[in-house]
From TrEMBL:
Entry's Gene Ontology cellular component terms: plasma membrane
First and last residue of the signal peptide: none
Stated name of the protein: Sugar ABC transporter ATP-binding protein
Coiled-coil parts of chain: none
Alphabetical keyword list: ATP-binding, Cell membrane, Membrane, Nucleotide-binding, Repeat, Translocase, Transport
InterPro entries assigned: AAA+_ATPase, ABC_carbohydrate_import_ATPase, ABC_transporter-like_ATP-bd, ABC_transporter-like_CS, P-loop_NTPase
Cellular compartments annotated: Cell membrane
Amino acid sequence: MSQTNPLLQMEHISKTFPGVIALVDAHLSINPGEVHALVGQNGAGKSTLIKILTGAYRRDSGSVLFDGRQVDFQAPQQAQNNGISTIYQEINLVAFRSVAENIFMGREPRRWGFINWRKMHADTAHLLERLSISIDVTQPLMNYNIALQQMVAIARAISFNSKLVVMDEPTSSLNEREVETLFTCIRQLKADGVSVLFVGHRLDELYAICDRVTIMRDGRTVDVREMQSLPKVELVAKMLGKELADIRRHGQTSFEIGQHHTDQHVLLEAQGLRRGRALQGANIEIHSGEIVGLAGLLGSGRSEVARAIFGADPLEEGKIRVEGQPAHFHAPTDAIRAGIGFCPEDRKVDGIIPHLSVRENLTLAALPILSRNGFVSRKKQQEIVDQFIRRLSIKTAGPEQKVRELSGGNQQKVLLARWLCLNPRLLILDEPTRGIDVGAKAEIQALIEEFAEKGLGVLMISSELEELLEGSDRVVVMRDGQTVASLQHADITQAAVMNAMAHGNDEQETNNTEEVQRGEA
């Protein structure tokens, strides 16, 4: 495929928000009639780059060349009018309006001042025919499944004579048959000369539909490659910021040094967890005093497993046992009663309550045991707060200080204290050290190890491979909603974890460790 005349060329794009550098000298190039993948972990800069392209954000520096001319869109509507349409993960159409009305909303064809329904229906049917879709366009959109609703969104996009369609996580809510319907549509767009920017995280889907891939990490473009010439394990390595040569040389960790004194007592066992496409048969087992690391790329199902175990998301199938007894968690309160605590991934959104004090945040989960006849014992509450501020070395002006005024590391300690004061049997930690400084990170890791030594079971999710390798007794790897590996002690290496991330349950590929060496060439 010729790259001499790209349809889109973004170069030296930088963007800074208050206190955050989102993009640094990023670039993206898409050819006419190409399906181009954009991949990266959380915080890589994918969404910011797309929003700059479509006019939702203004860039600080850099240039955007589209269809042969320099552009600087001021709003998404302007980008759409100039040939760039975006289809978001959450379909932003009107469910109770007809298919035809959704496609031509705000642009209805008119005759003598009235909507020309016959023309609108015919034009809609023609657009859908281009995508090999045949449905009754007069029916409300809600009458059709999510896959067909996405087809309608694509039809609306190409009705603007779009030359580039941006698809943000388009398969996240689709089943396998619906994904293939979407891919048929994408192939038709490609045949018609329309380019597609495909933002996704499921490796098999990327390799099935995309021609090239741009890999981002920490706001930078780290590589651009032909999809079929890029081994999966190398793609995973680049997303994680690893060098294959280093992985081969330093495959083993000093894991024996940090191994905890786990016992054979099974604290929690989860089998066959299923929920839509997010969980496709996840299994996990945690022993008392054991730190189990949960590894996987973005969208692998790590957080979904944690939320399912904690009762935050309902399961369609699967069994959970606590201390050998069947457990049915219909809500987080059920899990809390069973001795399970959960520190979520985004502490600012799902963890702390910013306008409340350190005292109120720390004892939030303990209120039922601190209350009598509806009144909270302030004395008991204060005793707990003082104890854990001292025990966890929380740096605060006092218990009444607003928690939002603390550093990220101290906010995380408050969340840990919230659960530790209940003396739980199992603590689930989703990205416990994200966004905190090195010193606080080391303190939190030491606290996790300290409580594990005393018998606390820990399920720790982290995007940082080193954190899992160094701090876990066992590492469970997730891929596309499934548990694909459970590595213990000497088997825990960067190469083993990344091969499992890349190839899943495909033994032929997983065991082909020579691909790690080949990827270096």
